[in-house]
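Service request form, structural biology core

Requester: graduate student, group of Dr. S.
Request type: structure prediction, single chain
Budget code: on file
Notes: please return the result as structure tokens.

Sequence provided:
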Amino acid sequence: MNIDIRLARDADTAALSRLYLRTRRETYYWCDSDLFQEQDFIDETRGEKILILTLDEQPQGFISYLEVESFIHHLYITPEKQNMGLGSLLLESVLRDLKKPVRLKCIKKNKSAMRFYSKRGWKKIAQGSDHTGEYITMEYIDLSE
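Core staff response, request fulfilled:
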């Protein structure tokens, strides 16, 4: 099993758009799946830095973030590859380079994501809501630095 994490290229856009659409439709079971479209990836990651994770050269996940704001916007792993440590690899790749504190928003109903971040030391600092439901703003401060 060959794992590679690299900056996404324009040639990755179609595969990442499909991955994003499929994963959100499966993960956000409480939302009407028609709410999500393939174009969303392009619209919602515009201006963001994107790292892609490939497994044996096949895209299996990505993380997108705003470097200046130290804000992680998206972290998605294909459903069949979740719970294998791939999300942790992507997250660690970004956390090494971002100025602390780092923030993100996590949908409250996405219990597995909430557990994922909490286990890794992220703390809840605020809450709000949008078209996908209530979310928690979380913050990460690495105290070992």
